[in-house]
Amino acid sequence: MDWYLSTALLMVLVGAVLLAAEFFAPTGGVLVVVAVAVMAAAVGLIFLFGETSEGLLAVVGLCLGLPVAFWMLFNAYRRLALDPKLRETDAADAVADDLGVARLEDLVNSFGKTLSPMRPAGIVEIDGRRIDAVTEGRMLEADTPVRCIGIRGTVVVVRSYVPKETTAEIADEELL
Fold first, then answer.
1. CA distances from 15 to 70, 94, 153 (A)
2. Mean pLDDT within 39-54
3. Which of 2, 73, 153, 172 is deepest in the core (most CB within 10 A)?
4. Distance between CA atoms of residues 147 and 170, nearest Å
5. pTM to 2 decimal places
6. What is d(CA 68, CA 52) in angstroms, rounded to the nearest whole number?
7. Are both 82 and 16 inside the same structural domain?
């Protein structure tokens, strides 16, 4: 292998390392600019000292190789889960992980009570967990029994709930 091809290959590898470093140490694009400049210099070196076909092959190789390398690096980055937003779970599951429950759907039909006034958003306690929630539009006071009636995206929706024994007591009082 000629010296200029070895040097150009080394320069392309240095550029690839700089591009990969930008993922893990964001510099605002400085490393990307330096990496592109190093790779362009490598192609220029091949055109300067080699044949035109070698230079064209280097350009085509970089144009095809860089997107494939980026795709592989991005998928590896997602699998590492260094950034939870890039994981292959939806936003509701990410919020559920923060709450410590398996899924937000598991809260549907669960009972709890409001910890703060719901106007219409507030905090409820369901299964011993404090959860941000909204009502269907009605305002509720603190310590009101509620039932989770659904999930809208990442938001828990609750409705006021009157226990059956309370309903029976109210009916008995109305008879007196």
1. 13, 35, 42
2. 93
3. 73
4. 20
5. 0.45
6. 24
7. yes
